[in-house]
Design brief:
The complex is a heterodimer of chains A (249) and B (313). Chain A has 249 residues and is α/β, with parallel strands linked by helices. Chain A has 7 helices and 13 strands. In chain A, strands 9-8-7-10-6-1-4-5-11 form a 9-stranded mixed β-sheet, sandwiched between helices. A two-stranded antiparallel sheet of chain A has the order 2-3. With 313 residues, chain B is an alpha/beta fold. Chain B contains 9 helices and 16 strands. Chain B has helices at residues 17-27, 44-51, 72-83, 95-107, 210-223, 231-235, 266-269, 289-292, 301-312, and strands spanning 2-7, 32-40, 56-63, 88-92, 112-116, 118-119, 124-129, 134-139, 146-150, 165-169, 179-186, 199-203, 226-229, 256-260, 277-282, 295-298. Chain B has a 7-stranded parallel β-sheet, sandwiched between helices. In chain B, strand 14 (256-260), helix 7 (266-269) and strand 15 (277-282) form a beta-alpha-beta unit. The chains are: A alpha/beta (249), B alpha/beta (313). Chains A and B meet through helix 3, helix 4, strand 7, strand 8 and strand 9 of A and helix 3, helix 4, strand 5, strand 7 and strand 8 of B. Strand 13 (231-233) of chain A pairs parallel with strand 16 of chain B.
């Protein structure tokens, strides 16, 4: 079956104001709204559109994390994914571990395409997709803003610092999504009801033969240094004078 | 001693300034010996520029026809082949480095430290998370290889005048053919580059149209400034994506940043935290941008911009 695997991460919602714990041990995540990482939502939307065009038959969505990330998987099923895989893991899952898990899932599911977000908005690492492609020994097309499938190949336009770069990659391949790739659909109430009946399978790390190794010690969390609040000027002339006095013009 | 390999970013003719910033980061690691790898079809002028960076001991010129375009899939095995004797492998946290370095790290079976903003020791670094709403100290075990990307806005470029040795080198890397370059469309511009400009003028959604956004260019030209944009302006189609400044766009550190009609969402502020002076022009006096602006002007940007242009003559 022509299958797309989409990886999604449960993260603190992008509208939440992040606060660091007073004891510097982490960021406060209790009682805050959690969501599907926005870039991963775009990844799922792209997979759904490919399936709706008839270029794929099944979209499988996978998430690694505590039992609560089944909520986000249900959201993805409501968006239109066919089934979900929950890989149970508590604590920090480093990108290399996540990539190893996704590699196991590609062996199991044999997708022709894996799509993930270009970064998670919590750790901002931007690593997992590239690491999966490396371990899988397959092409990667990161920061995608356009994906065209042509038989056994994909033509992917990438958002790079200079502008837009187009790559051609053999399939299977890993694609990571940038913001402008698409606009994810809204979930409708009947779809939420339907999603409850869709298959959601839970897998353990032990069953996948994965060791949850943490190699980076996160020893201290701090709030960023705050900028001093500045001055207000009344008009353009005063602005120019102020900047001149600071030697900036 | 720390032996550090920096992967050079370049366009085939010139070294990207991000490489000189990686050198400054690497030089902050105690007892560092710095090598720069220039992977290119012909390394010539790029290798010469890398060799002139103060702090660099050696430049490795890795010439191969496949390196005519810097693709992560083709570069990664070559960097891995070079990485054996180094304690650290670094690249810039630009789209080039973000694409490549994780692929290298995975092949080396090493965890990666992204967006290094400060060096505390050879194995301890600081990096921003949650759109720079928190800073985390990250430590790897002594003896473990460090693979990371360098947040370029946190470091000044290394000075030039050095004369490192240039060594041509071939690797026995298996270079895959599954990934092929097709094209790149870069907006050609005589304006300063957004990522390295000392002055940047950015426009936001309040400009209201692509035509109005265009007026920023003549203002920017008066100041010799680069032009940037908020995500809202990019999403609205007023400006191309490569101008986007913020968490998911470019992180910049100009001397002067002028935000025009930008409300100042946290994701945008992430991109300008290291700017020396921030000026905000916005008609909403409650806009969050004023919380971080060094100089604020509340008013109608459509009146203020022409007036500024006139004053700057």
């Amino acid at each position: 079956m022509k299958r797309i695997l989409v990886g999604i991460k449960r993260v603190v919602d992008y509208n939440v104001r992040i606060r660091v714990r007073p004891d510097a041990s982490g960021v406060i995540t209790e009682g805050v709204k959690m969501s599907v990482n926005p870039f991963d939502e775009i990844a799922l939307e792209e997979a759904l559109r490919i399936r709706e065009r008839g270029a794929a038959e099944e979209v499988v969505v996978a998430s690694i994390g505590p039992v609560e990330c089944q909520q986000q998987l249900r959201t993805c099923l409501a968006m239109g994914a066919d089934r979900a895989l929950h890989v149970q893991a508590d604590g920090t899952v480093e990108p290399l571990v996540a990539a190893r898990i996704l590699l196991k899932l590609t062996e199991r599911e044999q997708p022709f395409l894996v799509i993930v977000g270009k970064q998670a908005i919590d750790d901002d690492n931007s690593q997992t997709g590239q690491m999966l492609a490396a371990l899988w020994q397959r092409p990667q097309a990161t920061f995608a803003s356009k994906v065209e499938l042509e038989g056994e190949k994909a033509r992917v336009t990438r958002e790079v610092d200079a502008g837009l770069e187009t790559l051609e990659v053999d399939l299977p391949a890993v694609i990571t999504t940038d913001l402008r790739l698409n606009e994810p659909r809204y979930v409708k109430l009947p779809d939420i009801m339907k999603a409850k009946k869709k298959p959601l399978e839970t897998l353990t790390l032990a069953a996948l033969g994965i060791e949850q190794r943490q190699r980076l010690k996160l020893t201290r969390f701090e709030p960023p240094p705050q900028r001093q609040k500045g001055i207000k000027v009344k008009d353009a002339a005063e602005l120019v004078a102020t900047l001149k006095s600071k030697g900036l013009l | 001693m720390s032996t550090i390999l920096i992967v050079a970013e370049h366009d085939g003719a010139h070294l990207n300034p991000s490489t000189a910033k990686c050198v400054t980061c690497a030089a902050a690691i105690p007892d560092a010996e710095i090598t720069v790898a220039v992977c290119a079809a012909e390394a010539g002028s790029v290798a010469t520029e890398a060799a002139a960076l103060n702090g660099v001991t050696r430049v490795l010129a890795v010439e191969h026809p496949a390196n005519a375009h810097l693709l992560a899939a083709t570069l990664a095995p070559q960097i891995v082949a070079l990485a054996g004797n180094f304690t650290h492998v670094l690249g810039p946290s630009t789209t080039f480095g973000k694409d490549l370095i994780p692929r290298v790290a995975a092949l080396l079976d090493t965890a990666q430290i992204s967006d290094i903003m400060a060096v505390e020791s050879a194995t301890r670094f600081r990096r921003p998370i949650y759109a720079a709403n928190a800073i985390v100290t990250v430590e790897v075990d002594a003896g473990a290889k460090v693979v990371g990307t360098v947040r370029t806005a946190s470091f000044q470029p290394a000075s030039t005048g050095g004369s490192a040795s240039i060594e041509k080198i071939t690797t026995n890397a298996q270079i895959p053919s599954h990934t092929r370059f097709v094209s790149v469309s870069a907006a050609k511009s005589d304006r300063p580059d957004l990522q390295t400009a000392s002055r940047v003028i950015s426009g936001g959604r309040a400009l209201g149209s692509a035509e109005a956004f265009q007026t920023l260019y003549s203002f920017a030209d008066k100041l010799g400034a680069a032009v940037g944009a908020s995500r809202a302006a990019v999403d609205a189609g007023y400006a191309p994506n490569e101008l986007q400044v913020g968490q998911t766009g470019k992180i910049i550190a100009p001397e002067l940043y002028i935000a025009i009609g930008i409300s100042g969402a946290i994701q945008h502020l992430t991109g300008i935290k290291d700017a020396r002076t921030i000026v905000a022009i916005n008609k909403d006096s409650e806009a969050p941008i004023f919380e971080v602006a060094d100089v604020g002007l509340v008013g109608d940007l459509f009146q203020i911009i022409p007036e500024l242009e006139r004053l700057l003559g």
